[in-house]
Amino acid sequence: MRKTVCVISFLMLLVGCGVPVQQEPAPIQPEAIPSHLRGTGAPTIPQPTATPGSPTLQVHFVRNDRLFALAREAPTTTPADRLAAVIQALMTGPNDTEQSDGITSALPPELTLTVADVQGKRVVLELSGETEGRSAAENVLAVGQIVLSVTALPTVDEVTFQRHGVAVEALLADGALTTEPLTAADYAALRSS
């Protein structure tokens, strides 16, 4: 009985204070939000968390036409397994949360990457699938995304591409074409600051 009286008194107090009751949510104008509650306007990028103490891989993706690294959990086995994990992460792309924060992949969905050979600290990647009809900017970001991700591994310094076993020209960040081995330094200008 006492609880019922308290609830009724509280409701009467609310009605008496003029707190409006609405059936539908109402939008709040941005200027009505106190400044200490407003964000900076730049959404935060959630970093996938790895188990504390476990090794991670850096895989590069695209946001606002710049490349930046996200962490992915690394297998603790061989360098070949870590390389395969990087390639798989590139092919999988950003997760749903990352995509909702504007993170994308420059890799065409039809592209498939396969490790064709490892020669010391150089990795040869076989390209397959359709990659035509893309702009030079998209292609540079795609190549940079792959090269920065693969060379983030301590066992890899250089990347080359081939298609059906034949060397493929790749776009450098400055727009030049080359079949020479590619390094992280070739795409450093595309990294987000």
Automatic annotation (TrEMBL):
InterPro entries membership: GerMN (IPR019606)
Question: Where does the signal peptide begin and end?
Answer: 1-23
Q: Which Pfam families match?
A: Germane
Q: What keywords are annotated for this sequence in UniProt? A: Signal
| GerMN domain sequence ranges | 83-172
Question: Which PROSITE patterns does the entry link to?
Answer: PROKAR_LIPOPROTEIN
Keyword match Lyase:
no
Source taxon at top rank: Bacteria
**The protein, known as:** Sporulation and spore germination protein
Q: What organism does the UniProt record list as the source?
A: Kribbella caucasensis
Highest lineage ranks of the organism? Bacteria, Bacillati, Actinomycetota, Actinomycetes, Propionibacteriales
